[in-house]
Design goal:
The structure is a single chain. The protein has 4 helices and no strands. It has 181 residues and is an all-alpha fold.
Length: 181
């Protein structure tokens, strides 16, 4: 019987020791500011960390690109203003077209860089269609130019009608003043 009690004590002690280790390890790790995670969580964390590092790299490249584009925009505007003073006919036709083209290109490049940042966070790889962006901007500019042309035409018509009515009123007053004596 003494032999049985030793075996039961040994088994009970082993079970209690294993239970203490199993449940106690979390308390020991928590005291150290650590925790246990499974391999899926570890893989997800590593992937998130990798994406953040990629995003940081893309953002720093985007930052450098913005500086370069801003410098290019300043040069373009100074060149456009300078050429407008030296060649007046160039100002009315070519300079706005060049500046608008460069602004459209800049807009599409910014959209492409933003898409690259979004791709890093989503984990997807999207091919950005620069030509589609430029075509879209060209179409928007045509619509805007058509609308602006209509507005200018309406404003000119209103101005001419107002001028005509004021001229007729002035003529009538002059005729009344001439006939009054």
């Amino acid at each position: 019987m003494q032999y049985k009690s030793v075996i039961i004590s040994f088994i009970l002690g082993s079970v209690l020791t294993l239970a203490a280790l199993f449940f106690g390890k979390n308390m020991l790790l928590e005291r150290q500011g650590l925790s246990l995670i499974d391999s899926e969580q570890l893989t997800a964390l590593e992937l998130s960390q990798q994406r953040l590092l990629q995003a940081e790299q893309v953002i720093s490249e985007h930052k450098a690109s913005i500086k370069a584009r801003q410098a290019k925009r300043v040069v373009t505007r100074v060149t456009a203003a300078t050429s407008a003073t030296f060649v007046p006919s160039l100002d009315s036709a070519l300079v706005p077209v060049i500046v608008l083209g460069m602004e459209a290109q800049d807009y599409c490049e910014q959209q492409q860089e933003l898409q690259a940042i979004l791709d890093v966070f989503s984990g997807a790889q999207t091919d950005y269609d620069m030509q589609a962006c430029l075509d879209d901007i060209q179409q928007q500019m045509q619509v805007t130019a058509t609308d602006a042309s209509k507005e200018v035409e309406a404003a000119v018509d209103d101005f001419l009608n107002s001028l005509k009515s004021q001229g007729q009123a002035l003529l009538q007053r002059l005729m009344d003043a001439y006939q009054a004596p």
